[in-house]
Design goal:
- By secondary structure, this protein is α/β, with parallel strands linked by helices.
- Helix content is about 35%, strand content about 15%.
- Strand 2, helix 2 and strand 3 (about 85-90) form a beta-alpha-beta unit.
Amino acid sequence: MSKQFSPEEFFLRFAITPNCNFRCFYCNPEGKMEYSGVLEDDEIMQIMRAGIKSGITRVHWTGGEPTLRDMETLIGSSKALGYVDQVLTTNGSRGGDYVRRMANQGLDRLIVSLDTVDPQKFKVITKRDCLEAVIDTIKTSVEILEQPTKMNIVYLKETGDEIPGL
């Protein structure tokens, strides 16, 4: 006999953009940006309303890098619709103040991608100089969000020695 699932057990995993502001050599070294097929905010909210009508009340926002979109508004609008558990996976480049603003709109949990805490390695991997903002994002998330902050780490030969410390 197969298990019967209730809508509360499901969540929407919503990749709202394929784009990212990092240029990681393992993911997007050429910095390609996609514009076709990216949903507008009103189209996203249509899908969110359909989820609520189906009884789904949890959403996991992903991308690319979802904070390239106006996540404050999307999270707030989703909260108003009835979403009670909102998770966001991010590279953390927007910093702690952005986490605070998203939390004020209804963000419950953050998952941050971080492959190194070495500033030079970070620049080599991401082609960006914003490690301090990423660390601030993690610290702020741990401070203010009730649910645990998680980290995604891509194991690389160049950073493998850092894994225990991360």
